[in-house]
């Protein structure tokens, strides 16, 4: 449908329905007319009765997607997106089941976990150093009992198995999609096609013309990175200041819940900042890509995807990376803390470790993005726009409404939102794939929440494409394009991230080292005391000691680190245990990466890229093709032999062959298979073969036939 400004222009049915299969050249011409203001829009009309009943309804969530119908209606490009989303969602099922089992293991062993029991045991009476200067008092480790038990839910031996499993799952997902894509390419006849290209009408530009655009791109992306880091740093300052303010409160309940309150509010602030910056970065990525003036539509799309992914990846994961790898690692020690702006002490991890905080951060950001950005925005904003249009229509006078004709389909479709490409749809799923794979060691339930979201997401996207957006022009595509490379890169990156999360964020390696190197009984008894160092309270800097401590006169306090005690000649220096644990952590990273990479290669090698059914079908087609070729060659040889026999009958004197010489035999210069001789065929009563063009220059009547020659020539007749 073509729509002029202020008044739709309808020429004929061809104009209405023919846009679903226009060529790239025609589409380029229409786009040029729209850019010049001749038309408002161009789009094919909707006719979605079958798709709406079988696909675009929430009540059809349990059904398989009619991918072939989607492809016929929207084209191969959108069909491949929904096929990919279906494969991704199906493979989340086994990942969710394993994640639930791992979480269940943590719940089942929570009450028997020795380190958690030691932290909750008040008889051990570990007196910890203050968490802030002046306002914070000494405290007992047993008050963090709840945090220790919650940490064990995600920081247990099963977590390592789950991290390895999810790394292999990412490889399995890519291999399964590769097989599915090949099957669709075969059934949709996409092999060997070239994707639809829409060339830019701009003349060829030199590098000098493009240089300003590239400089603006680089500087803008660096500025956006700095903006993201500034937002993360601002939230860190918020956490530090609010912690200090709440610690000075006279209410003991507020002081007791400082860590939980600060963590939850900081994560919510992070989520709001991420949602706002996501929208800004999406618009900035489009603007920066337009400055580069790409030559083709595919080129434009690939550059836009790279920029948008880079900015949104950094925006979504920067707070999580901070908690996983930086929080508490540069805070210093009692008597020598690191300060921000000379007043605010850097924050430390919870007594149970940073993994529980990483789990809270990951779960809130992941669930918040899925609930708010992916669902409420996609459902609420279109519904709100439709409500505004309905209210505007009601404002017309009754007389005007009576004079109006029933709305035609092109008017209904023109009121829908324009289709803006698949990049936003892919992007939200790729970011979700990162939550599922990158930090899954800290949150085993991530695949389950992703599965529940995707069950709704498939029908939500289907309903949006069918009822909320104008029908896009069908475009052919061989595959999902650059998104496969992004997924592959994230799968490999997840192996590294999970290795470092297990090694440096969780307590898996320190527990392993203690049990096999330092435990007197070979068990985990005494692990908490082993991980706590001593500090002499008299070594605190002036003005930083607690005022009016409720625990009385404290001379020694404990803090979590591997350092020499104050009575050692190397007081407060890193101990031998620290270097042993560090070496074990680095060794685990190397071992984990190599093991997972090797298993990934094995999985990729075991699973063939082409399904067996497709291989067998290709073999059958090849055999039929060879049979047809052989039959045609045989008919051609019979025709030639008949012509020779006819020539010999008409001119017996001139065509008398020397004794012992028969009709020409296909040999070195012929690829024809051997057939019946002329004498045998002459007496046959079969139908005459239809005439075919043949080259007689391949035959030489003067070539003498011999058994040796015949055997030699017969070697060249095999097909």
TrEMBL record:
The keyword Transmembrane applies. It is found in: Cell membrane; Membrane. Residues 651-719 are annotated as: Disordered. Residues 709-719 have a biased composition (Basic and acidic residues). The chain crosses the membrane at residues 81-108, 158-174, 214-240, 260-288, 309-326, 429-452, 586-607. Residues 28-67 form the Anoctamin dimerisation domain. Belongs to the anoctamin family. PANTHER family: ANOCTAMIN, ANOCTAMIN-2. This is Anoctamin. It comes from Pundamilia nyererei. The lineage of its organism: Eukaryota, Metazoa, Chordata, Craniata, Vertebrata.
């Amino acid at each position: 449908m073509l729509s002029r400004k202020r008044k739709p222009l309808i020429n004929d049915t061809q104009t209405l329905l023919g846009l679903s299969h226009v060529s790239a050249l025609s589409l380029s011409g229409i786009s040029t007319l729209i850019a010049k203001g001749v038309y408002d829009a161009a789009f094919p009309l909707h006719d979605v009765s079958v798709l709406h009943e079988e696909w675009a309804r929430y009540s059809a969530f349990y059904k398989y997607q009619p991918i072939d119908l989607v492809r016929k209606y929207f084209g191969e490009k959108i069909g491949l997106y929904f096929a990919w989303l279906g494969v991704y969602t199906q493979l989340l099922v086994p990942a969710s089941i394993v994640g639930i089992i791992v979480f269940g293991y943590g719940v089942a062993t929570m009450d028997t976990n020795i380190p958690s029991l030691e932290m909750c045991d008040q008889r051990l009476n570990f007196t910890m150093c203050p968490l802030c200067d002046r306002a914070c008092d000494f405290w007992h480790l047993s008050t963090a009992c709840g945090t220790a038990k919650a940490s064990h839910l995600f920081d247990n031996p099963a977590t390592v198995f789950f991290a390895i499993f999810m790394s292999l799952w990412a490889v399995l997902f890519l291999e399964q999609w590769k097989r599915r894509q090949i099957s669709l390419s075969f059934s949709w006849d996409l092999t060997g096609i070239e994707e639809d290209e829409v060339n830019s009408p701009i003349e060829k530009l030199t590098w000098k013309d493009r240089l300003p655009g590239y400089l603006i791109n680089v500087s803008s992306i660096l500025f956006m990175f700095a903006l993201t880091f500034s937002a993360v740093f601002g939230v860190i300052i918020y956490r530090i200041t609010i912690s200090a303010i709440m610690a000075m409160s006279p209410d003991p309940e507020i002081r007791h819940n400082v860590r939980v309150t600060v963590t939850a509010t900081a994560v919510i602030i992070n989520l709001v900042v991420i949602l706002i910056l996501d929208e800004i970065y999406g618009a900035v990525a489009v603007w920066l890509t337009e400055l580069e003036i790409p030559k083709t539509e595919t080129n434009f799309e690939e550059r836009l995807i790279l920029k948008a992914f880079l900015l949104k990846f950094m925006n979504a994961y920067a707070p999580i990376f901070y908690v996983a790898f930086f929080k508490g690692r540069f805070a210093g020690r009692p008597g020598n803390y690191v300060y921000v702006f000379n007043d605010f002490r850097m924050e430390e991890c919870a007594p149970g470790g940073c993994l529980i905080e990483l789990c809270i951060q990951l779960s809130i950001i992941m669930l918040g993005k899925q609930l708010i950005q992916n669902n409420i925005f996609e459902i609420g904003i279109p519904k709100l726009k439709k409500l505004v249009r309905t209210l505007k229509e009601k404002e017309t006078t009754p007389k005007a409404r009576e004079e109006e004709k029933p709305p035609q389909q092109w008017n209904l479709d023109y009121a829908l939102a324009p289709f803006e490409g698949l990049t936003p749809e892919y992007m939200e799923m790729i970011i979700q794939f990162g939550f599922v794979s990158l930090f899954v060691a800290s949150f085993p339930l991530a695949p389950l929440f992703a599965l529940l979201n995707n069950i709704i997401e498939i029908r939500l996207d289907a309903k949006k494409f069918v009822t909320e957006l104008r029908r896009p022009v069908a475009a052919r595509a061989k595959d999902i394009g650059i998104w496969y490379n992004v997924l592959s890169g994230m799968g490999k990156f997840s192996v590294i991230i999970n290795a470092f999360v297990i090694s440096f964020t969780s307590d898996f390696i320190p527990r392993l080292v203690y049990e096999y190197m330092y435990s007197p009984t070979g068990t985990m008894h005494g692990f908490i005391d082993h991980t706590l160092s001593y500090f002499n309270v008299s070594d605190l800097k002036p003005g930083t000691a607690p005022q009016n401590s409720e625990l009385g006169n404290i001379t020694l306090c404990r803090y979590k680190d591997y350092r020499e005690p104050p009575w050692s000649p190397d007081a407060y220096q890193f101990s031998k245990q620290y270097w042993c644990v560090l070496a074990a952590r680095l060794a685990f990273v190397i071992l984990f990466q190599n093991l997972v990479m090797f298993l990934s290669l094995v999985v990729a090698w075991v699973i063939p890229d082409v399904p067996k059914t497709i291989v067998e079908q290709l073999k059958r087609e090849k055999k039929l093709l060879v049979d047809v070729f052989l039959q045609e060659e045989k008919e051609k040889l019979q025709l030639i032999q008949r012509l020779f026999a006819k020539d010999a009958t008409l001119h017996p004197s001139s065509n008398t062959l020397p004794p012992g010489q028969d009709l020409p035999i296909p040999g070195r210069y012929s690829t024809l298979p051997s057939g019946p001789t002329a004498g045998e065929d002459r007496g046959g009563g079969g139908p005459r073969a239809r005439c075919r063009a043949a080259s007689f220059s391949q035959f030489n009547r003067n070539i003498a036939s011999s058994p040796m020659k015949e055997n030699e020539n017969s070697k060249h007749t095999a097909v």
